[in-house]
Design goal:
Helices cover 67% and strands 5% of the residues. It contains six helices and two strands. Strands 1-2 form a two-stranded parallel sheet. The radius of gyration is 20 Å and the shape is elongated.
Length: 171
């Protein structure tokens, strides 16, 4: 899954100025804007450039978001895209009777989920961020359904035992 995160040069310069100010460094907004525009122009001429999305990339415009909102948005979109890849890859492996490949795909996804998404979103969960909780709920729902044919009794136990609000998950 390729994700191309973009924002207007003005938004990027403003964010950079805020980051520098947090470190006690004064930076001129106009100078930062000129620097960003010059870098974008240089990069635009390269065959593979940071300012050009790949043809198959998901483009996320974060112009109107704060840094924290943009990070959360990208994290949520990324894990949902990886979940879609999980479904496609496990389905393909199962249709080819490749149980080992299907299991390896699930294991790799769980590592990505726990070591990347959950770890980076931990504060969001503690703060009760509804988007983070809803995204994780969706991902776990899909994961359990995809993994169900692999270890049937474990998946049934995880999915079938109702939690406090009766949705059927132990999170």
């Amino acid at each position: 899954t390729k994700v191309f995160v973009t924002a207007t040069p003005e938004a990027r310069a403003s964010r950079r100025q805020s980051q520098l100010a947090e470190r006690g460094v004064h930076a001129d907004l106009r100078g930062l804007l000129d620097e960003i525009r010059a870098r974008d122009e240089r990069d635009a001429g390269r065959a593979v450039a940071p300012v050009k999305p790949a043809a198959d990339a998901v483009v996320l415009d974060t112009t109107t978001l704060t840094i924290e909102q943009a990070t959360a948005y990208v994290l949520d979109r990324y894990v949902l895209a990886k979940t879609r890849d999980l479904v496609e890859d496990v389905t393909r492996a199962m249709e080819a009777y490749d149980l080992f490949g299907a299991c390896a795909t699930v294991r790799s996804f769980v590592e990505t989920l726990t070591n990347w998404y959950i770890r980076r979103s931990r504060q969001r969960f503690w703060d009760g961020d509804r988007d983070a909780v809803d995204t994780l709920h969706t991902v776990l729902d899909v994961l359990v359904r995809v993994a169900a044919p692999l270890p049937p009794f474990v998946a049934e136990e995880i999915y079938g035992v109702p939690d406090i609000d009766g949705r059927g998950f132990k999170i």
